[in-house]
Amino acid sequence: MKKIILLIMLLIPFKVLAVETSAKSSILIEQSTGTILSEEESHTRLPMASMTKMMTLLIVMENIEKGNIKLDDMVPISESAASMGGSQIYLSANTTMKLDTLIKAICIASANDATYAVAEYIAGTHDGFVKLMNEKVKELGLKDTNFENVHGLDSDNHYSSAYDMAFIARELLKHPKILEYSSIYEDYIAHPNGTNTWIVNTNKLLNYYDGLDGLKTGYTTKSGYCITATAKRNDMRLISVVMGEENNKIRNQDTISLLNYGFSNFKLETVLKRDENLGKIKIKSGKAEYANLKLKTDAVDLVNILEKNKYNYKITKNKVSAPLKVGDTVGTLTIYANDIKIKDIELTVDKDIKRANYFDYFKRNIKYFIRGCY
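The structure assignment produced for this chain is given below.
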């Protein structure tokens, strides 16, 4: 009888449950697929306090990736930045500090002054940076978030939801460098005048939850205790959010409950790695006639931890012409689990392909002629 029940459970796809918490809003997602594993009032709009800084950090990391700014840039500290209240590292006006150090202060100490300084450095003004934040919200397709500042101090029209915070965190985690900062428990900030400020991470779960390495806490009188946490075990990364908790202890307990639920009940099956060779595709007008097919991302399937699937896949190639760059979509890989379609993943080429010139065609025709002779 037990075997029959187990078989029935494995044949039924898992459904989203609500892990019971004390939070006004909560969610748990798997990072690589974005699959929601638990949610409770996840679209309720609430003040999010310093979890705001995840969006600030996302824009910072994107600007670093684009080459607009560098980690060793010296960031000027304005009077406005230095006068910020709340959590801070006591920056002095009319001095400079390395961007790398300011990011560290934001991630570890939730420093409002560092956040304000970085925002001004990128956008010129605080309000200009807030505009970038709200534009990014629209780009991500999020419906329950509006920013009025870069730091998260209470403001009437400054709100988000557990759902939106989780997916902002997911986007931020596409920049793994951020975890090098958020996983630091304590450090010192060296000031231009020779003094040091000791900073301790506001995320105490770093000390005792296995695999946890981020991401951002938050608290104001209006928001209550909030946290977006992320942890990785056995190649699976989870993101949890709780908002509006009564105290820090309950916030941490509920976070642990969510993460424990995810790690105890789900696993990621890797069907194909992104670096595997999936055959060749013909390139019209290319300097090279063929290129190797590669996945844009690992092909993975999120399943119940007891589930065992048999996977196969089908490749569909597009008709493509040069020039082509790595990352361009040239086809689709369709994955099947137990002969049931589960997802499509885009295919790309393994190298850039330039357009052929007349000399390339001449050499190619000579080659074909010689082959034909033999």
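Interim note for the steering committee: The radius of gyration is 25 Å. Residues 1-12 have pLDDT under 50 and may be disordered.
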